[in-house]
Write a structure and sequence with these properties.
This protein has 1 helix and 13 strands. It is an alpha+beta fold and 156 residues long. A hairpin with a 3-residue loop joins strand 6 and strand 7. The radius of gyration is 19 Å and the shape is elongated. The chain binds zinc ion.
């Protein structure tokens, strides 16, 4: 009996670790809609580029939303990029388990820092119109093992 209890006790940390890993892979899978607005203005795939009028590949979805509306993390993870450039505007990249990342572009404000661990649904910034953008909206992307994929099947 004692030997059995000893054995069980030895396995407790391992079981806890496994439970935590399972919990993280569930909460770390993107599923939370990242804005209050559910107004899709552009889908993933080929479309007419609003700037050039030519067919181009759109690597994410656009959600029309009010400037200053909160942007929510689609899943738990680590903030790996907080940056700004002429194309993305102010943007955030979150690393999730199993090679998944979520990208949030054209923000007006960012309320997290690189290295932060965030929860699913946590507010990470505000909707904006920065970078290559024709109006206030969130461009949302999911990258799996370095390749952009359609985020809609992931979202509720
Ligand atoms: Zn877009």
């Amino acid at each position: 009996m004692n030997a059995m209890l000893d054995e069980m006790e030895k396995n407790v940390p391992l079981t806890l670790k496994k439970a935590k890993q399972t919990e993280y892979s569930i909460s770390g899978t993107p599923s939370e809609w990242p804005t209050l607005s559910k107004r899709l203005t552009s889908n993933f795939g080929y479309r007419t580029d609003p700037f050039t009028g030519r067919a181009s590949f759109h690597a994410g979805i656009d959600i029309g939303a009010k400037e200053g509306d909160p942007v929510y993390a689609a899943a738990a993870g680590e903030i790996i990029t907080v940056a700004q450039d002429n194309s993305h505007g102010k943007y955030i990249v979150i690393q999730h388990p199993e090679g998944l990342q979520s990208w949030y572009l054209h923000l007006s404000k960012i309320s997290v820092s690189e290295g932060d661990f965030i929860k699913k649904g946590q507010t990470i910034g505000k909707v904006g119109n920065t970078g290559r953008s024709t109006g206030s909206h969130l461009h949302f992307e999911i990258v799996k093992n370095g390749k952009t994929i359609d985020p809609l099947p992931y979202l509720q």
